Amino acid sequence: MSAQTVETFAGLGLFLVGLSLLSDAVRTLAARRVRLVLSRLGQMPASGILTGSMLGAVTQSSSAATYVCIGLLNSRAIGFRAALTISAWSGVGTSLLVFLASIDLRFAALFAISLVALLYLASLQKSGFGRPTSALLLAIGVTLLGLAMLKESGHALEHNPWVQEFFIFSSESWVYGFLIGLSVTLVMQSSSTVSILAVAMSAANLIPLVDAIVLVCGSNLGSGLSVALSASHLKGQARHLAVWQAMVKGLGSLAVLPPTLAIAAGGGFDTAVAGLSVPISIAITFLLLNAIGAALAGIFQTPLMGLLHRVAPFDPDAQQYEPAHIIDESAEDPETGLMLAWKEQSRLIGLLPKTLAPLRPGGEDDPLQFSNAERRELGIGLAQRVTSFVSEVVSRHPNNPDLGGLLLVQRCNSHIEPLLQALHDFVDELSALRGVTARESSTSEAMTESLHLLLTLAADQAGGESDLGEMLREMTSDRSEVMNRFRNEIAVQSAGSGANRESMFVAATLFERIVWLIGQVSNDLAGIGRETGSTED
After folding, report:
1. Among 116, 185, 395, 449, whose CB has the most other CB atoms within 10 angstroms?
2. Position 3 pLDDT exceeds 90
3. Is 46 left (phi over 0), alpha (psi -120 to 50) or beta?
4. How far is residue 79's CA from residue 440's CA, in Å, rounded to a whole number?
5. Where are the domains of the chain?
6. Contact 207/158 with Cβ under 8 angstroms?
7. For the chain, how far is it from start to end, CA to CA, in angstroms?
8. What distance in Å separates the CA atoms of residue 369 and residue 86, rounded to the nearest whole number?
9. Are 202 and 212 in contact, with CB atoms under 8 Å apart?
10. H helices within 273-333, ranges in order?
């Protein structure tokens, strides 16, 4: 293997490592500010194009941009329509890296790395500002140096027999080139990376410009499919946003590829790109793919939304028990993780009063028509999802200042899971009563309505009414007198069947446990509010 070939693959390695470092550095240095700016811009009229382009320029990844949009959507910082627009136009910003590949980058790369050296010489790399700054400059330098090495050494591959055979095969039909671009992007998770490789290969005369553009079109569609596949575990609007990204990319490829092939078949391709260098031609193609796809998606948004609901359907009732705020990617930032975990937990607490619907008058009209077992499984599943998410955030950032709040959320969840279990057991016991007497009916109704009141107050406290915390603590602190009354009433219900008395006694025991757990949840909510400074108790 020649030295030039080694340099080519070394450049590719530096470029890929640099992209990863750049993503981490940007997330550390500016993630919070970027989210704040994006959420504000996303709420302004006609700002989706600017916001999406800025997001793409910062992340340099359609996948990352889509997940940022999902995070903003889940935290209610932007609406669904705004998220669609921002996500669609994020691809335009990712074209910046492809344009950079068309200029001389070595000096810029060495300059960025020189600044890192100065920070180290001045012992500033460990300071509060110096650490993220040096990481960002190093990531920029490594990325640009890798690009420069790719451009300078790409000609070495021109004489490699294996490479020659590969590209001879791909040039036999545009379909091969399109599928190669799509497949490589699915593996590398970045259409801009494949486009930059197309720049290097075309500049080195490894493939004609037309074939390079076909490769870029395939990589564009592959980028959208990659987002949709990586988000296959998501539900509801988050899943729709990921599939939407694939639709946008597909529209761009469908709009650009046929005219390109038609012009090339007619022999007018050289005239169409006259005066433009190969790198600039590919960079413009990449930009057009994303801009045209986003524009067409905006024009045909209504029919595309109908298709979206058919491609990725979801049950709106069951969706209430799917995570609406937390996503795995937000675990990278503890502050965001704390905010989203708390929102998810508050939403789950807001669903608790519904567990008693089968026992209350009008419960048959409850819009969530699930059995008690199904509702139990859905509720506990959501609670466990919150627990696992918080554990992931804590394990990634064990020394973060937000650790206290995260541990309080975890403690609250350790009370919510048994509370859910006890509530559903309570419903099972009272639902099993047969031939109840008036006294049994009165006792079961009193317990049910008492619990419903406490759960409603807890839901209101979780929703932001912190002044209810003291009231809940007083109502749940000592229930011995009430419990004795319930037990005495059950004991004297001699007219009831033995099975009924047993169910009533079990229900009374569960009632006492549920009341205690509601008190613990209320205390936890107050602690979370104090820790985050968002409520006053």
Report:
1. 185
2. no
3. left
4. 49
5. 3-155+169-311, 319-532
6. no
7. 70
8. 36
9. yes
10. 278-299, 301-311
How many angstroms separate the CA atoms of 69 and 214, rounded? 29
Q: Token match 């609250």: residue?
A: 412
Domain 319-532 classification at class level: mainly alpha
With a CB cutoff of 8 Å and minimum separation 6, the contacts of 474 are none
Give the pLDDT confidence score for residue 514 in this predicted structure.
93
What are 295-309's pLDDT values in tens digits? 999 999 889 988 888
Separation between Cα atoms, residue 519 and residue 517, nearest integer Å: 5
Please give the full DSSP string across 119-152, using - where no structure is assigned: HHHTT-TTSTTHHHHHHHHHHHHHHHHHHHHHHH
Asked if 378 and 321 count as a contact pair (C-beta separation under 8 A), the reply is: yes
Helix, strand, coil % over all residues of the chain, rounded to 5: 80, 0, 20
Burial of 365 (0-12, 13-18, 19+ CB in 10 A): exposed
Give dist(CA 372, CA 470) in Å, integer: 31
What average pLDDT does this structure show over 31-41?
54
List CB contacts of 267: < 8 A, sequence separation 6 or more: none
Residue in this structure with the two tokens 């599928």, named with its chain if needed: 179
Q: Tokens standing for 355?
A: 């567990």
pLDDT in tens, 229-256: 877 777 777 888 889 999 999 999 999 9
Whether 148 and 101 have beta carbons less than 8 Å apart is answered as no
Q: Which two tokens stand for residue 182?
A: 């799509």
Q: What is the 3-state secondary structure (H, E, C) of 34-67?
A: HHHHHHHHHCCCCCHHHHHHHHHHHHCCHHHHHH
- The per-residue pLDDT for range 177-207, each reduced to its tens digit, is 898 888 878 876 667 777 777 777 776 677 7
Distance separating alpha carbons of residues 202 and 192, to the nearest angstrom: 15
Q: Please state whether 236 falls in left (phi above 0), alpha (psi between -120 and 50) or beta.
A: left
Would you say 490 and 444 are in contact if contact means Cβ atoms under 8 Å apart? Answer: no
How many CB atoms sit inside 10 A of residue 217's CB? Answer: 30
